[in-house]
Specification:
Layout (H helix, E strand, L loop, with lengths): L3 H18 L6 E5 L11 E7 L17 E7 L2 E7 L10 H14 L3 E10 L9 E9 L27 H14 L3 E8 L8 H9 L4 E3 L3 H9 L3 E11 L10 H25 L1
Parallel strand pairs: 1-4, 1-5, 5-9, 6-7, 7-8
Antiparallel strand pairs: 2-3, 3-4, 5-8, 6-9
The site of hypoxanthine has 13 residues, from strand 5, strand 8 and strand 9.
């Protein structure tokens, strides 16, 4: 187990490397999920830094995820985007998964926007829908905050009272209304993957209160909340997990629906960033 001091050394080395490449203090961090990489198109890009060059950064193994930090301006706000994120199913530890989020905090962010692809379990949803995450259930076999806690960073026992920021949720609803798009809302259940769920598992997860299920976001959001970031998160529903109406689901389907919803999510996120 790393000590707090070792951990700070790693964060500082990553931070120092990045600010040597780019003198820029981002306000908002954005994690781009599966197939959503081109969300960056609306960003006035200033610089990029490959994960592979940053000390202690994990490198992405999933083909659909490029691995770099993008720095730029979006609707008048300074943003840093993670193009490529790390999943537990790839074999990373929770500490590795959240390391980039903690580095973004050190760089200066006060807010985090996360996006992901997820299976819909609420029968009112359909593939291609965007769901704003109102709450989550951590079904991962662990938590990134396990281990020594630095009280300067956050509480030992962070409360989950307002994990997903209410003001930001209202902003997202207002932007969706202005855009005249249907935005679903619901509870995201995060679990390991890489298998999708069996019919029996979808049934169980729905009974337990989930509207959507996916393999990411929960660890990063927990770490970001611990450090006092305000959080806004969205799922793109890429397939339906309805236990009485199961269909085969391929990675192509997931990426296809993610790409289809992407222009809408891009506008939604840009509209939110502008009002943050
Ligand atoms: N289950 C879990 N993760 C997912 C799914 C799903 O159905 N779709 C996209 N990511």
């Amino acid at each position: 187990m790393q000590t707090v001091e070792q951990f700070h050394t790693m964060i500082n080395e990553a931070y120092n490397y990045i600010i040597d490449q780019i003198d820029f203090k981002p306000e908002v961090g954005i994690i781009l999920g599966t197939g959503l990489g081109s969300l960056v198109d609306g960003i006035e890009m200033i610089n990029t830094v490959d994960y592979s060059t940053i000390p202690h950064f994990p490198t992405s193994t999933v083909e659909s995820h490029a691995g770099r930090l993008l720095f730029g301006n979006l609707r008048g706000k300074r943003v840093v985007c993670m193009q490529g994120r790390f999943h537990y199913y790839e074999g990373y530890s929770f500490k590795q998964i959240v390391f980039p989020v903690q580095v973004m905090k050190k760089l200066g962010i006060h807010s985090l926007i996360a996006s992901n692809a997820a299976g819909g379990m609420n029968p009112n949803f359909k593939p291609g829908d965007i769901m704003m995450i109102k709450d989550h259930i951590n079904f991962f076999p662990g938590n990134p905050l396990i281990g020594p806690n630095d009280d300067n960073w956050g509480n030992r026992f962070p409360d989950m009272y307002e994990l997903y920021n209410r003001e930001y949720q209202q902003i997202a609803k207002d932007v969706a209304t202005e855009m005249k798009i249907r935005m679903q809302e619901g509870v995201y259940i995060g679990l390991t993957g890489p298998c999708l769920e069996t019919a029996a598992e979808y049934r169980m997860l729905r009974i337990l209160g989930g509207d959507a299920v996916g393999m990411s976001t929960v660890p990063e959001v927990i770490a970001a909340h611990h450090q006092g970031n305000k959080i806004l998160a969205f799922s793109i529903i890429t397939d339906m997990g309805l236990p009485d109406n199961m269909h085969p689901c391929s990675l192509e389907d997931v990426i296809g629906y993610a790409s289809k919803a992407e222009p809408m999510l891009r506008e939604l996120i840009a509209g939110c960033v502008e009002k943050m």
